[in-house]
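Now read this:
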Amino acid sequence: MDVLTASRPLVDVQQLQASLFPVCANTKGSYLSSFLQNTLKSNQVEINTDSKTLKPIAKLREPKDLFSLPKEIDCAQQAARWPAECQVLDERIQHIDYSPPEPELYYQPSGREIQPKPVGDDSGTVVFQYYPMSAVNYFSRSSIGGSRFFLPSCSSERLDDLRFESRFESGNLAKAVRITETYYELSLRTDLYTNRHMQWFYFRIENTKRNRVYRISIVNLSKAESLYSIGMRPLLYSTKDAVLNKVGWRRCGENITYFSNDDKNGDDEQSGSYTLSFNLEFPYDDDLVYLAHCYPYTYTDLQDYLIRLQNHPIKSTYTKLRLLCRSLAGNNVYYLTVTAPSPVDEPKKKQAVVITSRVHPGETPSSWMMKGFVDFLTGDSSQAKELREKFIFKLIPMLNPDGVIVGNNRCSLTGRDLNRQYRTVIRETYPPVWHTKLMIRRLMEECGIAMYCDLHAHSRKHNIFIYGCENKRYVDKRLHEQVFPLMLHKNAADKFSFENCKFRIQRSKEGTGRVVIWMMGVANSYTMEASFGGSTLGSRCQTHFTTQDYEAMGRAFCETLLDFCDDDPSKVTFQRSGCEQR
């Protein structure tokens, strides 16, 4: 070896970067290239020299340094990363908060609703068409803002035609066909890199005409059963109504019907497609109107909420925001730690409570419940303070940010349902699931877990309810898994139904978070499901849920948890006797 080479100082970081990781000039390149640039320029990498070869070796620092998220970080500036083939409007869509003055009633089917069979492109004119196209049918790379090429979406030249758009965060509409001046057939996009899971929709309509009855049919839904067939209405947001009257999302539609496109009336998702058809009147001329399956809650909404939480002068003292991992597309998967700081000289052993949400991206009620949970837990009530003193809360508000961003209904960018992958050992393919299990395993070793709950939404059932895991191992713990749901039913009797709860483990659910975490040793392991529709209970019978209702359910969960973990054993005995009577 040349003497000059042997004595040469350590190669600097920039040269190392240039030689090992050539960076493309395209600023919208892959996530990997931008990550390596930022990492090598930061203090997240350390350069050592091999003692034998004297070659420089790049090594990431310890995970606690690599993944720590400083309090002052501006989360709102971390733009969403999209698959590179996706076209994305360069605008931020925001909706006002709104609570209806009265509960919104279900539609009452008459049985005489018209059921127009789909007729397709040949009998009409395509006025909107968008489906992200890739050279390969799997995720390959991502970029901020998606594709550099923004193409027209077949907008109609007729002055009176409605104009459709869905190329925004969480949007989903693949095609709109004008059949007549007032009848439009719409098709939803499948989850990316699959041919299934058409249910979530969220799109906007322009060029509206007041005092005109339109018929809208979404013709390729995949669920054989739906709450639309028993009274649920879609949601509408009028931009003019929001500006003029402070009215936000509200239920809409008349003459609502849901039916099979197949005369054989198949009874499963594989048998065919289904149509949701309804009449719609717009409140204003020339309005910008949004339609959605449920109240949207985007990845950007979450980041804005988290940064407000971190910037709060009081809440930030007992709430820490950290990075669990990065998703397949390079989006941040966050987790919150909420607990009262323990005195250094009097460390207190606390058990953990783990709550996760939004593993299924189309199930937006889970995000609203999580928001209610966090709002209550970080509040200044005596109950919130007691909970923070008693537990360490680990909250993962959005397990599947990639799916949320692109408007998927069920899957991640792998084309798989993440809530069937909890038995996986493949970190690179399902990073949120893998890191969640790792966090839970460490918590079990360090302090134990009092409860785990994964938040979801349900498209076929009313009310809010829980799925648990039946305990057959220990006689003295019989029915113990039913105690918390029964207490929750008593604390939220107009929303939560104990009768709808189930505790038997089906074979098809063995890969879910609830079952796998229970098998790891967490006795109180639950899935909480909130109806997309509403309640059939008490004073709220046959009315729709609002975002406030979902948030209230998060608060009720916290209050019930405090009762459930009360040190008085007589309370548990009393509740268990109630389970036996039922």
Observations:
- The chain has a mean pLDDT of 86.
- The chain has 14 helices and 24 strands.
- The longest strand covers residues 449-458.
